[in-house]
Design a protein that fits this description.
Blueprint (H helix, E strand, L loop, with lengths): L2 E5 L2 E2 L9 E4 L3 H8 L13 E3 L2 H11 L6 E3 L10 E9 L5 E4 L12 E5 L18 E10 L2 E4 L7 E9 L3 H18 L3 E4 L3 E5 L3 E3 L3 E4 L6 E5 L1 E3 L11 E3 L6 E2 L2 E3 L2 E3 L3 E3 L10 E4 L1 E2 L2 E3 L2 E3 L6 E4 L4 E4 L2 E3 L19 E7 L6 E4 L2 E3 L17 E7 L14 E4 L2 E3 L3 E6 L5 E3 L2 E3 L3 E6 L13 E3 L2 E5 L7 E7 L4 H4 L12 E3 L2 E5 L2 E7 L6 E2 L2 E3 L2 E3 L6 E4 L1 E8 L2 E3 L13 E3 L4 E8 L2 E3 L12 E2 L3 E7 L5 E2 L18 E7 L18 E7 L4 E3 L1
Parallel strand pairs: 1-3, 3-4, 5-12, 12-15, 13-16, 14-18, 15-20, 16-21, 17-22, 18-23, 19-24, 20-25, 21-26, 23-27, 25-28, 26-29, 27-30, 28-31, 29-32, 30-33, 31-34, 32-35, 33-36, 34-37, 35-38, 36-39, 37-40, 38-41, 39-42, 40-43, 41-44, 42-45, 43-47, 44-48, 45-49, 46-50, 47-50, 48-51, 49-52, 50-53, ...
Antiparallel strand pairs: 1-2, 6-7, 6-11, 7-10, 8-9, 8-11, 9-10, 58-59, 59-60
Length: 679
């Protein structure tokens, strides 16, 4: 059996027809010759020929040419009418159903249309960005018109003027019918199809479940706009809250893609407040799918949720204010995990995804104050471990590449809380609180990613928020609540490599923070070749337990700009830090500005280094006391420091004698491998 094209009575491959051959794209003349009256089969010389329907024959024209462009124009599957949109023209008064729109005269033709208004809706944010209901969204229906004004089903909850508004007839029926036709054809012949949305503005209000073989394409992202206008009752119900969503579970769906249109959630909220399932795009367990050249704006929760998927691409998208209702808590420390621009849950080893060249824009900004309703977004890109993520040491490779994205205005720029062998490279992150985080981020199954490369990223212009330090790049072994209870994870974290990143201008925070949670050491961590400059606190901070750490060849310039004592150091070892095995060498400390002055050497405060190859020959001590000197050993042989409480003065007679506390003499000391001696 084979697919055959017949033109002018000849087969496309020159072979004779065989029994069971499927004839595609048949012309009327050829069909008349073969069917002799339009029957589905013609027995000629003992051969059976199965003819496709005219509709399928037309759809296959692109397929047989290699284009795979079976299309389902949306306006052929239902009533598809343009919506009307104004950026700042609507007004409503509290307790009134009357809607006026400057520049538009409502008529009887508008009765019954769906309306979305931003401003007079069901609630407003509190000072800590928790929500009474949502951020003023109202979605209603025009019940009547009079004197050019519309009267809605719902009354305004608050007075609002100059508001954003959209109104029109929803296209849900056409989308549902087109998806059904595309799905049925794919089930019959395995050929994916594409639903084509014309140029213009359109409204959708329902939920659009899709399965394998269904894609949606607009004319271009600047020319086709789809507004999701709905208020859901349960913001955490994945069966009602999302718009475009993968239907069912337990089966990996293929060829489910979106491209070339704008998807707008300005008028999408919930009566019950923020919920993590309020995603306009909610994909899970897909394969060979993509989301490219989309503009996704104002989604309440994660804008592009794409979990546990294989061979998928998320690229060249513009995402604006993803997580607009997922505001970071000013009283918390993590900013939460939900409400990202792109969210990916990793499961077992069967996942691979390329996330690249996306422009991600939040609206979190320094100095905007605790009551600003526009402060949105928790993470630009959030990679999160799930319940299915295996425990160490049984790690595989997820195949995630996060590359060349530009992210600004989120609490976290990029978070990886549990992937395997990811590559986070060549991204630009700016104007966030935390730039790049490898660690749990407070999520239930969060953990340090394994065998991950964080390289050649540019992180800049960060700011402290709500009493929390800003951090350019961090690795943190604190597990999530569920991960903490799992066995076998205490010693198997990490092997993360942090290489050749540029981190600069971290306001109110550290350039790089390496934080090993109690009982869960950071293992096999490499921090090398990074440039860290102009941070308010120390360039690199270490705390906790480290095994086989390599901290080498980093350049620290003009850090500690607003700090005192140990936080002026280029590298700060916090009290209680232990480091067993590894290498500490080749780091450069520069301060061309000299005001404020970065310390000339690392600060060590009761830290213990064992079997660490160290070529850092000068230590700056917090308070500069004998008690704060690390234990003398071969590790510190040749290392110099200064103490301020020596019992003996610095004289020729005392040079070479073991230093002891108990006085007020400031003297230089060095380690001879066994003791700290004056000299």
């Amino acid at each position: 059996m084979r697919n055959v094209i017949i033109k002018n009575g000849q087969t496309s491959d020159g072979r004779e027809l065989q029994r069971g051959d499927i004839v595609l794209g048949l012309s009327d003349d050829d069909a008349a010759r073969l069917t002799q009256g339009g029957g589905a089969e013609e027995f000629a010389a003992g051969k059976a020929i199965l003819l496709t329907t005219p509709e399928k024959a037309a759809a296959f024209d692109g397929l047989v040419s290699g284009a795979w462009d079976r299309e389902y124009p949306l306006n052929q599957y239902g009533d598809v009418q343009q919506a009307t949109y104004f950026a700042a023209a609507a007004s409503m008064a509290i307790a009134s159903t009357e809607l006026t729109v400057d520049g538009y005269v409502f008529t009887d033709a508008d009765v019954g249309k769906t309306v979305g208004v931003k401003g007079p809706g069901y609630g407003s944010p509190t000072s800590d960005f928790s929500l009474v209901a949502n951020d003023g969204v109202m979605v209603s229906t025009i019940q009547s018109v009079a004197n050019g004004k519309a009267y809605l089903l719902n009354a305004a909850n608050q007075t609002a003027t100059g508001c954003e508004v959209v109104f029109g007839w929803p296209c849900d029926a056409a989308f549902t019918a087109a998806v059904a036709a595309c799905t049925a054809d794919y089930a019959a012949d395995g050929v994916p199809g594409c639903i084509v949305i014309p140029g213009g503005r359109f409204i959708v209000t329902g939920r659009l479940p899709v399965s394998s073989g269904v894609s949606i394409r607009g004319v271009r992202r600047e020319g086709t706009h789809v507004h999701v206008c709905k208020i859901v009752a349960n913001a955490d119900d994945s069966t009602t809250a999302p718009w475009f969503c993968r239907a069912g579970s337990g089966v990996r769906y293929k060829y489910v893609s979106l491209t070339q249109f704008s998807l707008i959630g300005t008028f999408f909220a919930a009566t019950s407040g923020y919920g993590s399932d309020m995603k306009m795009i909610h994909m899970d367990t897909t394969e060979d799918s993509f989301v490219t050249r989309m503009r996704i704006k104002d989604n309440p929760s994660t804008a592009l949720g794409y979990d546990k998927s294989l061979n998928c691409e998320l690229a060249h998208n513009i995402i604006v204010r993803g997580g607009r209702l997922a505001r970071p808590s000013l009283s918390g420390s993590s900013g939460g995990a939900g409400g990202s621009a792109i969210g990916v849950a990793v499961a077992d080893y069967d996942i691979s995804m390329h996330i690249h060249h996306n422009r991600i824009i939040g609206s979190l900004a320094a100095g905007m104050g605790n009551t600003d309703a526009g402060a949105t977004g928790r993470s630009g890109i959030n990679i999160e471990a799930s319940a299915e993520t295996p425990n160490p040491p049984a790690f595989g490779g997820n195949g995630l590449i996060i590359e060349a994205n530009i992210i600004e205005g989120y609490y976290n720029g990029i978070v990886d809380s549990g992937s395997h062998a990811a590559r986070i490279v060549h991204n630009i992150v700016r104007s966030c609180v935390h730039g790049i985080k490898a660690g749990s981020n407070g999520v239930t199954y969060g953990r340090v990613p394994r065998d991950t490369l964080v390289s050649h990223n540019d992180v800049s212009d960060l700011f402290a928020w709500g009493g929390q330090y800003a951090v350019g790049l961090s690795v943190n072994s604190a597990p999530g609540t569920a991960a903490a209870a799992q066995s076998g994870i205490a010693m198997a974290w990490g092997r993360t490599r942090v290489l050749d990143n540029t981190i600069r201008a971290v306001g109110g925070g550290y350039g790089i923070a390496l934080l090993a949670n109690s009982g869960r050491p950071l293992l096999g961590l490499t921090v090398r070749g990074n440039l860290v400059s102009d941070c308010d606190l120390s360039g690199i901070r270490l705390f906790g337990e480290f095994i086989d750490l390599e901290l080498c060849d980093n350049t620290l310039i003009s850090n500690g700009r607003t700090a005192t004592a140990g936080n002026k150091a280029p590298i700060r070892f916090d009290t209680g830090t232990t480091w067993v095995g590894g290498k500490f060498s080749g780091n450069r400390y520069l301060d061309p500005e000299a005001s404020p002055t970065q310390d000339a050497a690392p600060t060590v405060n009761n830290a213990v280094l064992t079997n660490v190859w160290a070529a850092e020959k000068v230590l700056a001590l917090i308070n500069g006391t004998v008690a704060n000197l690390p234990a003398a050993s071969a590790t510190y042989k040749g290392v110099r420091a200064t103490v301020s409480d020596a019992s003996a003065a610095y004289t020729s007679a005392n040079v070479g004698s073991t230093v002891a506390a108990g006085g007020s003499n400031q003297v230089p000391v060095f380690c001879n491998g066994s003791n700290w001696v004056i000299g």
